[in-house]
Amino acid sequence: MQIVDLETGQVDLEQLTGIFRVIPQEFDFIDENDIVRWYSNNNHRIFGREESSLNQHVLDVHPKHSANRIKKLLADMHSGNKTKVEMVIPAKGKQIQICFYAVYDHAGTYRGCIEVTQDVSHLVKQSRLGNLWKLITKH
Fold it and tell me: Measured between alpha carbons, how far is 31 from 77 in angstroms, rounded to an integer?
């Protein structure tokens, strides 16, 4: 059994894999060279990932129409101008939140970023705008 030593404790590899399998968000780790190194593999994924996306440049696994935004986002993270970017986009009939968080080591060196994606449609429906929409459409 492989033990993973973390800053705040230990888990074995099977436990860590299980944790990422049940969390309803999807995670993708992009290293300091903008290469996709890891993704969570669970039934909650909105944007499917194939094992072939591993070790590919992040621009090669994202839609071409988002390339300029991703280039800018990564440049900002590499330079330290931004440590996080959060957005909500409509996709697949849902409201999808996509967040990028810069990852640094203890010395402050940029090591990559984690992309976290989740369906927030239920939150949008509960918002004031969602409630207004219900009134207007009489749902």
Answer: 11
- pTM score: 0.83
How far is C-alpha 61 from the chain's CA centre?
A: 13
- Number of DSSP helices (H) and strands (E) in the chain, helices first: 5, 7
Nearest partner of 136 among 94, 119, 128, 90, judged by Cα: 128
CA separation for the pair 124, 121 (Å, rounded): 5
pLDDT tens across 70-117, in order?
999 999 999 999 999 999 988 888 899 999 999 999 999 999 999 999
Q: Among 27-41, 70-84, 114-128, where is mean pLDDT lowest? A: 114-128
Q: Is 66 helix (H, G, I), strand (E, B) or coil?
A: helix
- CA distance linking residue 47 with residue 53, whole number of Å: 12
Residue 101 CB neighbours (<10 A)? 15
Neighbouring CB atoms inside 10 A of 76's CB total 15
Nearest to 100, CA basis, from 36, 8, 10: 36
Cite the beta strand spans of 32-93 per DSSP E: 36-39, 84-91
Nearest to 46 by CA among 24, 21, 31: 24
